[in-house]
Amino acid sequence: MLSLSLSAESGLLHSWPILTAGIFVSVTLLLSFYLIFEHLGAYNQPEEQKFLIGLILMVPIYSIESFLSLLDSKIAFVCELMRDCYEAFAMYCFERYLIACLGGEENTIKLMEAQVEISSSTPLLEAAYVNGVVEHPFPLNWLLKDWYLGPHFYQSVKIGIVQYMILKTVCALVAILLELIGVYGEGKFEWRYGYPYLAVVLNFSQTWALYCLVQFYTVTKDKLEPIKPLAKFLVFKSIVFLTWWQGVIVAFLFSLGIFKGFLAQELKTRIQDYIICIEMGVAAVVHLYVFPARPYQRGERCIRNMAVMSDYASLDAPPDPEEVRDSERLTRVRLSRPEDREKRLNFPQSVRDVVVGSGEIMVDDVKFTVSHVVEPVERGIARINETFHQISENVRRQERRRKKAKDDCYLVPLHSRSREFSEIRDHLPEGSVSDSGLSRKRSTAP
């Protein structure tokens, strides 16, 4: 009877973390999909909303994968890798969402180029970006060149964010391979395991991607003011940044043996998943206020008059301060007109556009990033090959010179031979030394 009660109590204590996590997961799914369906029902701005929906999906995906890890520790490793990969994709979606709010890539680059012509007294421009130069903070300013607003800055930020998505996927595949051969060692900071090395690589990659995103936000935050970018940025950054460092810190504390409480013993290494389930429930509530569908449902949204700055950028002329101040005023623009309602995508078409449309753009950006990363590597390899070729040619040339000098040492110069024969001829008596000459002398003797 005592053993039965102890087993029942142990099962209850083991299931209560699963029960509490399940409640938060249910709330997360309910609120997140409610918000997604609202956006799909008011799918008036596909370029913005396709990436916005991808960003909102981050919360339920995090929640589901963490809960599955709690239910079955055998699939926890795969779930964690999938969650981390989607984290990189969500960061990419956030950048593309901001670009779409600015009017697309071309318009974003034009707006950045227009800032170069604005004087430092113009309120649109931060003092740090006068003359169109983005200076890196210490110690990056010792390692990197300044970025110039325009295509250079835009491409640098784009590559910096996409590289994290690519590297995250590659490291996930490497982690699976290391796990199969038994040398991954999740949560173990020992040199013979692959986990600490991948953690360092991903840490630098994620930090650089976040740095690029911060720089892009800082440059464009004034123009994105109508969509309240600060709240969106802080919510997204807290999810991405805190969950990553949270996982690293939890793994490090477990390796030191600090987690010795009852809850830690029950959850063991899955305490990170339990915390994420709780956090995503809170994040789902915040998303309702930070990424609402109401502006798209009303068919109108407040935006800045971007055309003024674009016109000056296209004419390559300094902007008029009066028109710059006018462009600062918010204008209510109706996004959906009666004649456009017939062209609005229905629900299945909206879902297809979210999946296929965003996927096509992502593939193009990945190709762009890979080409720009591979190109300097190819140039470097070509220079190295050229250097080795020059070295080998110099070695062959030296060998030929050495061989020629060695062969010449066995030859006697012609002028030296002529000198020796001339000396011998001077010491000989007159007359021929041939046998016929000697016989003639003997015959003439008395």
Features:
446 residues; two-stranded antiparallel sheet; mainly alpha; 4 strands; Rhopdopsin 7-helix transmembrane proteins; 73% helix
General shape: globular
Kindly report the average pLDDT value: 75
Regarding CATH, which class of the largest domain? Mainly Alpha
Low-confidence stretches: 1-13, 119-128, 302-319, 326-342, 432-446
Q: Report strand order across the widest sheet.
A: 1-2
The biggest sheet, with number of strands, parallel, antiparallel or mixed sense and barrel status, is:
2 strands, antiparallel
Total helices: the number is 17
Number of strands: 4
| CATH topology group of the largest domain | Rhopdopsin 7-helix transmembrane proteins
Distance between the termini: 159 Å
Number of domains: 2
The radius of gyration computed from the alpha-carbon positions, rounded to a whole number of angstroms, is: 38 Å
